[in-house]
Each structure stands twice: as C-alpha cells, then as structure tokens.
Design a protein that fits this description.
By secondary structure, this protein is an alpha/beta fold. 34% of the residues lie in helices and 22% in strands. It folds into two domains: 151 residues, no CATH class; 247 residues, Alpha-Beta Barrel (TIM Barrel), CATH 3.20.20.70. The protein starts with a strand and ends in a 6-residue tail after the last strand. Bound molecules: iron/sulfur cluster (SF4).
Amino acid sequence: MDTEIIVHPDRHGLSRYRKLSYPARYGRYHEVRFAGHTCHLNLGGEIRFVQGSGPDWPHPMEWLKRSLGNDWIYYSVRGYDDTFDRIGEYYLPCFSYPGNSLLGSIDFSQPPLQRAMRLPGSLAAAADRLLREHTVESRAAEVLTAIAAATPAHLQARARRLQRILRARIPVLPPDCRHVDYDVIPVMISEGCLYNCGFCRVKTTAGFRVRSPADIRQQIDALAEYFGADLANYNALFLGQNDALAAGSATICRAAEYGYRRLGQERSLIRGPVVLLFGSVDSFLALTEADLARLAGLPQRVFINIGLESFHGPSLARLAKPVHPGRVRDAFARMLAVNRAWPDLEVTCNCLLDETLPAGHIESMATVIADTLPHHYPRGTLYLSPVAGTGEPTLLLRQFKKIQSLRRIDTLLYLLQRL
Ligand code: SF4
C-alpha cells in the first residue's frame, strides 16, 4: 500500500448548506490524500469523509461519511434517477446498520469500502511514523499529531463519550436534519415520549421526563469542550429526545438560547443557525400562541417534526398509538396554520406507509390532505416512513406515490437515521 500522506490543512468549504448533485464540503476541514483516497477530516483530525480514487471505487461522485456515533454512511448517486423526487436530496444515504429504506442500499462488504472503513487505523499509524521519521512543517505537524491520535479505538471512545455526556442514545433524528446533512449537536432536554406506541422501534419504553435546567446546562458545557475547535463547523442543535416539544417552550428556549451562545452558533462558519426537535400530536396541540411567539423569537430557525402516523382510527388502534384520529387531523391542520403564520418556524409531520394496516389508512390520509389543502402549499413537508424491516418495497412505494401525486404538500420518504 502507498503510505505517502499529503496534508492540506485548513481548507475552506461552503458556508451554507445547499442541495447539490456533486460532492461538497462545508465549514473548515483538513484534506488528506492517502493510499488512493481523499479524506476530509474535522478540526480534531478525525476522518469524516472518504472518497476512493481507484478503479474499483463504486462511483467517482460517491463517498463514505463517518457519523458522530462512529457509523459509516455511503452516499450513493447510482441507479436512483428519481432520488431527489423521493427524498428531497440528490444523494441517497445508505446505512451500515439496518434501516427502513425502500430505495435499496449498498454492499458494505465489498473490498473498496472495507479498505476505506479501515483507513482510520492505517492513516493514524502512517501519520505517527511520518512524525517520528521526518521533520514536518509546523501546521502540518499539528494536524498529523491529531491524525495519529485518531485511532479506531479513539474514535469508538469518542462516540461512547458523547453518549455519556447525553446519558442517552439518539436512536433516530428528525427528517428535517437532512437540511444540514444530519450534522447536528445533540442536547437532551427530555427523555422518552408521551405515548410509547406499540409499533415503534425507537421508543425508550420509560415514561416521559424533562431534564432539569442544571442537567441541560451541564450537557451543553460538556459538549462545548467535546467538540472543541470543530464547533465552528456546526450550525444546528438537535434537542432530544423523541418528544422534546412536550418539555415546553420555556425549557426549549432556555436550552436553545444557552446552546446558541455557548456552542458558538452565532460564530459558526456555516450560516443560518437552526434548532430541530420532535413533537407529538398532544405536545403540538398544547402550544399556545405565546409559546409559538417565544419559539419564533429564538435566534435560530426552528424545525418541529410531528409524528402523526395515521388519520385512521382502526389503524391507530392497530399501531397501539393512543391518540384519537380527530386530534391527528387537528394537528395536521394546525401544522399548516403555524407554517402560514410564523415564517421562522417550520413544522413538518410523519405518517406511516404500511401494507398491513386496515383498509382505509392510505385513503383517509389522501382524503384529509385533499380536504385540508385545496392547492399545493409550499411550507411544511409530509414525510412517509415505512416501519423498519417490514413490507414489500414495491407496494409501499405505490402508497407513497399515491399520496405524493396529490401534489398538495411536499411529500418525501423518511429514512430513519441514528446518531
Ligand atoms: S412513534 Fe413517537 S410517540 Fe410513539 S413511541 Fe415512537 S417515539 Fe414515542
């Protein structure tokens, strides 16, 4: 293997997230050429992106990304001409863990991907050797020292440390995180959710609990230290967990405002600070106009994603989701009203695709959408999400097309992504 390392420290990427059909990097990063790969590293010297240049790399426009949770995600352009129409992005993220994608995945066992995923080890060793055997110019030496420390064990330990700071795992992120390529700083302001629905695979099963102000502050202080110089590359906070909206606007705003200052969102190299969170039918309907005004007054743009699942009583009963269908319809109508009235808030919602639900699930969804929206309305998105690991993709994609073809609200597939 060619073990020469070429380091380009402190490259500058784009300063605003954009929907692009070619590889792009954001913020400030180090670029390293090593063993037939181009690696993009965060400012702590940890690999974030890898692109192979050899003839067996699946596609010259595709790359691997390593998440904060130390998962590999492959960004694919091939074979999915209608990817943008289905997920609102030009690249299809393929996960190295089980997911709910209807659009296929990639074989992570193929040699070029296996080689790329082993790069943290070989790159760290090569950087260590280079530093010991040669004199290196000072900034490159600093970067190489960080790379040498970013061994696979170190990366795994960093992922575990993040969980210790949060005292939780993030089993799923809101679909709106796609607008920042899922590069969010997570802060747990609550745990669990109000319903513990029978069908759900991402619930905690414990009851809903709001974290104390001191706990939230401690997390944010620890996160500032954890991200270090790389804070400059984040413009997004995710307030967890599965129904953070139920924590109330005072808790949300306190966390968002403290995070904005302490995590440097005001100085981020990526413009347009955002806060993202999940809500539920009841936590959303409980918001008063004063709550909405408080949320809209935050320095960040706020994205709230509401889990509706179904407008159909028998289907909600089958899903063991303890919500009346009338409340689900009310939440959908209120989502539209909030999106019309508050330009700095964007509310989106999720419903399920499922061929095994009682007849009427998809039909009632189509009826509610058509009755509530006489024309296409451009704000807010309806995300449709198959339950992970169930259903025949062709049938579920037919259900998706049926709802999307109403053309009343942007309708996309929700690919469950963890942190
Ligand atoms: S679907 Fe949402 S509300 Fe229901 S259990 Fe899962 S996370 Fe909780």
